[in-house]
Amino acid sequence: MTIRLETPADYREVENLTREAFWNVYRPGCTEHYVLNRYRSNPDFIPELDFVMEEDDRIIGHVMFSKAIITLDDGGVFPSWTFGPISIHPDYKRKGYGLKLLNYALGKAREMGVGLLQMEGNIDFYSHAGFDLASKLHIHYHGEPRGAEVPYFLAQELIPGYWGGREGTYCPPKGYFVADENPEAFEAYEATFPHKEKVFLEGQLPQFCQSCGMPLTADLLGTNADGSRNMDYCIFCYKDGRFLQDVTMEGMIDHCLKYLDEMNQMMLTPMTAEEYRKMALNHFPMLKRWRR
Question: Where are the CATH 3.40.630.30 domain residues in the chain?
């Protein structure tokens, strides 16, 4: 097993590896391979921390790092870093390769002066590499209640004392949203790979309509112009390739409020109209249809 820097000759193989590693894992299909493709020309990309892992004369793993910032409570910004996607080929998962690759990369990052990392992931895995809940460092996650202990938002000081007991809020770098911001470019890119079926599977992260925010299930998917299912929007927002409501984001929130009584029947903690509107104004800007 060897770990080395990625080269341009590896790009397509690594992107295909990333696609295989993430397909239908966190959502139907995946976008991580396109994020990687576009990130290499992003000024936040760190080529010195762009590693591939080889075994059996093939590339079986990859990880990349990015510059990031934390917005401090006093309004300033604090330099930080994140990483991902980190990919291991499905044939080599659950054999310790991912942890070996990550620990190697973290060591190189520390040598470069990377002092603080935060990322979204499963603490059961990443705790083995030294990560813990970011809330313990008083780093909050955008879009979540400020006092929430967000179980998937993790952080680690690679250089002890680097964070210095500050408090602030983290938002993933804009480069990670490139597929949502450029859906036509992503679809054109995805079409250059062999076809793979997108499916809902148990264990995926909850999926939500990217227009109204309601939970998405296979039987509630909207439809494209050709009659195929659309994996981003519900049937109440999107049908036959078009949105059913010609509204602004605020107009969509008003539309959803008409169904608040029905939504409250499915919630553990019902909300008032004022509470729903406040939640929606924080949440809706992160949805694909309304993201700027």
Answer: 2-177
